[in-house]
Amino acid sequence: MKILLPVDGSSYTKRMLAWLTTHDEWLTGQHEFTVLTVVPQIPPHAAAMFPADQLKSYYEDTAEAIFKPIRKFTAKHNLATSYQGKIGHAPDVIAKMAEKGKYDLIIMGSHGHSNFMNLVAGSVATKVMAACKTPVLLVR
């Protein structure tokens, strides 16, 4: 099964990973995981103030800071994992990647850093479910 794991480094990302460890059926070698983080794009008028290489470094460093603890987790559990750092609006990027990559499932935390905005499901999770046909498993 091809599984997309959108992450943002929040406590809900950690809960989602903890949930995976309690369900051995997800940790077998028969699943292929892609860990995705989406870094918000700096507005063009602000981005124009920085050299292109500095912006690129900012986006890469931000993504890697989120990936670092997840790399340890996936290595510990011997999961076949690839990592993708993208730039843009998280719900749109996640939905587009799920559709284009023909993922079988998206597993994500129910909330992210802005969990006070929506009580039942976070705005990113809600928008992802509305924008793509790929099944979404939310972990609270």
Structure, described:
32% of the residues are buried. Helices cover 43% and strands 21% of the residues. A five-stranded parallel sheet has the order 3-2-1-4-5, with helices on both faces. Helix 4 packs parallel to helix 5 (123-131). It is α/β, with parallel strands linked by helices. It is built from five helices and five strands, in the order E-H-E-H-H-E-H-E-H-E.
Strand order of the largest sheet: 3-2-1-4-5
Q: From the alpha-carbon coordinates, what is the Rg to the nearest angstrom?
A: 15 Å
Task: Count every beta strand, where a strand is a DSSP E run of 2 or more residues.
Answer: 5
Strand proportion, as a percent range, falls in 15-25%
Shape: globular
Low-confidence stretches: 113-121
Distance between the termini: 22 Å
The ordered string of helix (H) and strand (E) elements is EHEHHEHEHE
Mean pLDDT figure:
89
Structural class: alpha/beta
Number of helices: 5
Major sheet details: 5 strands, parallel
Helix content: 40-55%
Identify the notable features of this structure and list them briefly:
globular; five-stranded parallel beta sheet; 140 residues; alpha/beta; 5 helices; 21% strand
Write the layout of secondary structure elements.
Layout: E1 2-6, H1 11-21, E2 32-39, H2 44-47, H3 52-76, E3 81-87, H4 90-100, E4 105-109, H5 123-131, E5 136-139
Parallel strand pairs: 1-2, 1-4, 2-3, 4-5
Helix pairs in contact: 4-5
